[in-house]
Each structure stands twice: as structure tokens, then as C-alpha cells.
Prior knowledge:
This protein has 218 residues and is mostly beta strands. It is built from two helices and 15 strands. The chain is globular, with a radius of gyration of 16 Å.
Amino acid sequence: MSPSPYHRAGWFILFLSLMALVAACTPTTPVPPSSEGDVLFSDDFAMTNSNWALFDTPAGTAQIQQGNLYLTDLGHEKSISTSLLNRQWDNVIIRTQLRQAAGTQNNWMGVTCRQADESNYYLFAIGADGYYLLLKMLADKATPLAGPETSPAIHPDRGINTLEVSCVANTLTLSINQQELASVTDESFVSGQISLFTDSLTNDETSVAFDNFVIIAP
């Protein structure tokens, strides 16, 4: 059964205060040009590489297997994430495919942008149960900018979704499967790191597979 919006809303502070961000190396993969803007970075996860921190801990794992980056939260009240560190990004479009690979559908999965540290960033997420969320974390205070709401544009359960995030000037936009779900303006952050993350909202495991990750200049 899908959780209520109240359940999702009550989770903001818990998730954001416990979000564990994992260091990764500076991206070095060469990428081709794009008709919609220069590709700044891309990874199809065809093989293990140094772009992402891979780990196996009691809280969760990050592994590249069979052409996907898998982030698994083992349900110990901490989200699991990996970042492209040592690089600041300002105006970008972020696109990736993601799907729930195993475990509870009561989860969040997505990306952050303009992340200064663990207490300051924008977060864009969907859940395997059809919810979406766009929020700001400023000095450890969570402010929902859009959602949590459900959308028929999201492929639920283990369906593959294409998530696109636009952080351009003061406009933040979340699109799923080529359908815009939310667009807001905010001037809190102008640049920062980018991360992938997943989080179980229960004590149960959830695992998410990411593929075809790309960062594009707008």
C-alpha cells in the first residue's frame, strides 16, 4: 500500500538530517557533443570506474554491476548516496534513468544539485510508489518546494523512469519521462556538487539501479 502524503511529509527532517554523502573522484570520462548543449559528463556504467565511490557498509552499498550503478539502503535510518566531488556545477541539466531493483516501494530515489555540504542543497526525487518531491535543505532546515505528490507520469514498482533535473539560474525544474512535474524559483544556491541517492522510508531494504547518467550544459 502506498504511504499517505502525510507520511511522506513527516519524513523530511529525518531523511535530510541523516543523509550520508559519500566522496567520489573527479570525473574524467571523455564525452561526445550534444545537440541540446555540450555534454559535461556522462557515464553508462558499462564498467567499474573511478567516477563514483563504491562501498559495502552495514548501512548500505554502492556497486557497479551489469551496466548499472546500484545504491542499496539496508534500512538503518540513513540514506545511501554517492557524489561527483572536487567539482562545482552551476547551470546544468542532469538526466538519468532509474528504477527500483529490489525491496520496499516506500522509498525515495533521485539526485541533488548545487550541494554545498550535507546541510545545504536542492533535492529532486521520485518514489517507486509514484510520488515526487522537490525540496531545499538550507542550514539543516528542509523546505518543500514541490510535493510530495503522486503523478501518473511516474512508472511505479520496478518500471524504468527517466528523471531530468534542470538547475539554471534561479529556476529549478523536475521532469519525469519527458513530462514536467514541477518548476520553481529559488536563489539560495548558485553552484555545488551533484549526487545520486536512495532512501528507504521504513526499516526495510530498498535497492535502486541508475543508468545512462549525463550532465548537460543548458
